[in-house]
Structure formats: C-alpha cells, structure tokens
Specification:
By secondary structure, the chain is of the alpha/beta class. It has a domain of about 150 residues: L-arginine/glycine Amidinotransferase, Chain A. It has ten helices and 18 strands. α9 links the parallel β15 and β16.
C-alpha cells in the first residue's frame, strides 16, 4: 500500500489526472515515474504506455517540476537497498546553447517538490549512465570526462560506496552518442549476463573495448538487433532503432518496436533472456526521434519509498 500519497487533480491535453491507488496486489513492487511533460508533449504515446502499465497493474506516477521528459537522467539513482542517491546533473551535452541549458532540470527543486529523501553527491552523473544488478554497476567511460577534476580511482571507490556495489564496470562510450549513456548500449539480464546491441555490427574500437570488459568480468553477452538505417536528417540525435532501451519493471518489459522484421527477433531474444517476464511492445518513435526511448523517459523505484505523489489519468 502506498503511503503518504498527496492527491491532485488536473487536466493536461484532454486527459484528466486524478489520484488512483493500484498497489492492491502483492506482485507490485515498483512504481514507474514519468515527467508530466511526457503527457503534455506526447499524449497519445504516453497514454499507450500507461495503458500497458495499467494492464499489468503497475503503479505509476507523474513527476512535478521537470523541464524535460528524460527523467531517468536527472532523478536519483536507487540502490538495491532502497537508498536514493542524487548525483549532480550538469551534463556537457546540454551546454553551448541557451535552449539546451534552459532545459536542464533543477534536481534539488524536483526532490523538494516531490518530497524525496535523498543523499546528494557532487559527482556529475546521469541516471541513464548507471545500470545496477546484484552488487555490480555498469557505467560508460563518459563518467571520467564529465568529472575532470576527480582522480579516477578515487571516484570509482566513491561510486562503489554510494551505489553499494562491489564492482564498478566501465564500458567504452559510443563516440557518436552525444550522451554517452550505458542504457543505449547494454542492459543487465543478471549479474553475469548483459544484453546489448549486436557486437558484430558495432564499430571495431567498441567491439574491442567491450570484449576486454567481457573477459575481465567474465560476462556473457547476448546480441540484440539494432537498426542504423532509420535516422532522419531532421533528427540527428534520434534513438529510433535501439531495442535495448526498454522499460523493465517488476515482471514486465516494455520494448520499443520500429515496424521492421527485426521487431519479432528482438521480442524473441528478450523472451528467451527473461523467461519469467512478460514482454509488451510499443511504438515510441515520436519520442525516440528526440534522442531517447523507454528507459530514458521512466524512473523506476521500489514502492516502499517514504512519500510520493501519485497521479493517474482517466480518458474522457
């Protein structure tokens, strides 16, 4: 049962937002949080995602006070014990243009507005560049360029303590990815297995770097298709074609599909990798064209948080 729920009602783009408690099943252990802006800017896509969550009785809530839809990046990282670690959110890719800098959310204000009890860290790190599974964390080496004043070993040790992980695994960032986030390249299946973009189709430098990581940490790598021929000149940062940026919550995985024959293959691979999970699909292309997909636009946390605001839409 959710506790300390603050009820609100509002109307955004023809959808009525009202309080609803969906936590009356023992199987629900996590809540999916979404920026209110996703519903405002992409109402149909957001509605489709929420329909899937409701179908599987997954709690969801809207985050107040955000400036963009990519909530995974600026919201706190939750450790496996349940602690919330709020890292500094000052990514280099949002610098250089006023409109980009103005879109950077104020993480302290978001935490205040949403009543979150967090531990703050001055390490500059996006949530999309943190993957955690059973004492292991995967980050891309973008963490080093984003924190040039930190000594590498010292920062790794601090991250290990903050994230409560005995191993911090650093993978190479994609040179062409402006964010450098790990969640656009790989995801954990379990502590010793990751699933990622098909290695044979990747750049040679990335293949070599990843193979070194796999060997060092004795990781098994499951290939997923990814599509490199779907980008449009109008959307240079498009994430269309990246299957691994799926949403995972409780016993559910929601994977983006792109109207290609590879869709079926991606679903089959996920079902085999996660035999005890339900696989749902969604067309998320209108969001993906802006540079991110499902993991980017959702923040998944254990439901035993002290307080949270629950909002829920009802179609007219």
């Amino acid at each position: 049962m959710a506790i300390g729920i603050a009820i609100q009602t509002c109307i955004i783009n023809t959808f009525n937002i009202q309080s609803t408690d969906m936590s009356n099943t023992n199987s629900v252990k996590q809540t999916v949080y979404i920026s209110e802006l996703l519903l405002e800017r992409y109402p149909e896509t957001c509605k489709n995602l929420i329909n899937i969550l409701e179908k599987h009785k997954v709690n969801y809530s809207f985050i107040k006070g955000t400036k963009d839809i990519w909530c995974r990046d600026y919201m706190p990282v939750q450790t496996e014990s349940g602690k919330l670690i709020q890292f500094k959110y000052d990514p280099s890719y949002l610098k250089g243009k006023m409109e980009w800098e103005d879109s950077r959310s104020d993480v302290r204000e978001i935490c205040r507005m949403n009543n979150l009890d967090v531990t703050f860290s001055d390490i500059n790190l996006d949530g999309g560049n943190v993957l955690i599974c059973k004492g292991r964390a995967i980050l891309s080496d973008r963490i080093f360029s984003e924190n040039p004043t930190y000594e590498k070993e010292s920062m790794i040790n601090e991250l290990s303590k903050l994230l409560e992980c005995d191993e911090i695994i650093i993978i190479p960032a994609q040179k062409g990815d402006f964010t450098g986030h790990a969640d656009g390249m790989v995801r954990f299946v379990d502590r010793n297995t990751i699933i990622g973009n098909r290695l044979a189709d990747e750049y040679k430098y990335w293949q070599k770097g990843m193979q070194e990581v796999l060997d060092k940490y004795n990781l098994t790598y499951i290939d997923m298709p990814f599509l490199t021929d779907m980008k449009e000149r109008k959307y240079p940062n498009s994430a269309v074609g990246i299957y691994v940026n799926f949403l995972e919550v409780n016993d559910l995985i929601v994977v983006p599909i792109f109207g290609r024959e590879e869709d079926k293959q991606a679903v089959e691979i996920l079902q085999k990798a996660f035999p005890n999970k339900i696989i749902e699909t969604i067309n998320y292309n209108d969001v993906a064209k802006e540079g991110g997909l499902l993991n980017c636009t959702t923040w998944v946390v254990k439901k035993n948080m002290k307080r949270y605001k629950m909002s829920h839409y009802t179609p007219n």
